[in-house]
Amino acid sequence: MSSLHAAPEPTTTSERGEGDLDDLLRRGLDWIERVAPYDLAAILVLEGHHLVVRCARGRLASEAVRGHRLDLAAFPTIREALETRRARGFSEDDHAHGDGDPFDGVLDLAPGHSCMVVPLCAGNVSYGVMTLDRERCEAYAPAVVNLVEVYGQVLALAIVNAQRGVSLARLHERDREQVRLLERELVGTALLDYDDSNDSPMRRLVTRARQVAMADAPVLICGEDGAGKGRLARAVHGWSKRAQEPFVAVDCTSEGDCERDLFGSLETRGRVDLARGGTLYLSSIHALPLALQRRLVRALDAAPDVRLIAASSLAAFQLEAEVGVDHFDAELFERLVAFTLNVPALRERGRDLAQLCAALLSDIERRTGRQGLRISDEGLKKLCRYGWPGNVRELATVLERAAIVTKDPVIDADILDVRASTSADHANVPTLASVQRQHIAQVLKLTDGRIYGSRGAAALLGLKPSTLQSKMKKLGLTREADARKK
Q1: How many domains does the chain have?
Q2: How confident is the model at residue 236 (pLDDT cuts 50, 70, 90)?
Q3: Contacts of 393 (CB under 8 A, 6+ apart)
Q4: Which helix (DSSP H) or strand (DSSP E) does residue 372 occupy?
Q5: Is the pLDDT of residue 264 over 80?
Q6: Which H or E run contains 454?
Q7: pLDDT at 177
Q8: Model pLDDT for residues 375-387, shown as the tens digit of each residue
Q9: Alpha-carbon distance 386 to 413, whole Å?
Q10: Are residues 462 and 363 in the same domain?
Q11: Which of 94, 100, 287, 398 is placed for a possible disulfide with 90 were both Cys, Cβ 3.0 to 4.6 Å?
């Protein structure tokens, strides 16, 4: 008894598409036997001025048949069948005095055997021909030839559609590879080694992030702007089983481009599609319009092989407040909030500053060709005395600017464009966001939470109501009651 072995799994989408096309051809030939019995059925595809056997079925199918090709110039009747798009049943006279049989020299068939050539054409596309041969010396009946001709048209449509699917799969595979290459280029060496952090809260965050990475569930990363949420998202992707697949990022603050980026257009594939098998990273998820949030949920349901990582400068409780006023989709929030990672601000990670500088300078070296870049002791002291309102993103900018303006690989304090001060000084200086938040909260309290009208908060602040609501959303002032309390 012969043993059965499972076929190896195709490694790419395009390979699976090619396999599906071959399966379609086999099933198509198997089905036609119900209408027109045969000993050999073959599908020959056009390759320039030749026809080449791609699929063969029946008891006469052999390796010689499967490797067969014929020159169209030697078979004017087959060429005519393709041009007129009409099936043709061959007679004994055709075999004896005409072109002969397409498999002459490969099979020894009598001149009077049953033979039929069926063009496979759809629209303006000619795929090739289907041939049917039977050793029995009796021509196929005209009614059978006509029926098989109709079937050939249906099969040709299916083949052309399958070919388009294969072509799209190849484009998709190429797009995915391009995404992988771009990601490797963008990430570079700036993905600092989180495991070497000197900060205890950061080490705890890394432990949780590694656990979350292996869970393959959606993740919400919260933290101030520039704190490194994107870097942590890439690290989570790198620690996961999807590490070799694409990491596809979308900035949700660009409202005009966000819909096209996420879902694509008639001409392009969307990022949700490109992220299949990998990770879709959405920065500033709170800025994504509610309608697109709901569309995203549906898209992820239809593409379950996409891991979602989202980042927000709002804390989880603030996003929950957004759900309460119908500014954030409840289902999306429930998916994300199960695994939440909170990235500390750079001013809270002073012990990691030297390590961060080394990682960022390594990335600058890779991009600029510089070698041996490092911070002097005095330079590091100056950086430690700065409050970093812009977090890691600001640090990267300061270091890159310093590397550009000096030829010396050692970056000293006088090259670093930051205002050295004590930590206490910075602790007493409120951020612009906190000042705005406090002021808007006070005005909302004065108006008893009213936004619209001549006595509303928008009018008192000199803003459009829609602008005020946008600012409230960004600052976490979402409920009128909350605003009055704060």
Answers
A1: 4
A2: very high
A3: 225, 226, 228
A4: none
A5: no
A6: none
A7: 60
A8: 999 999 999 999 8
A9: 12
A10: no
A11: 94
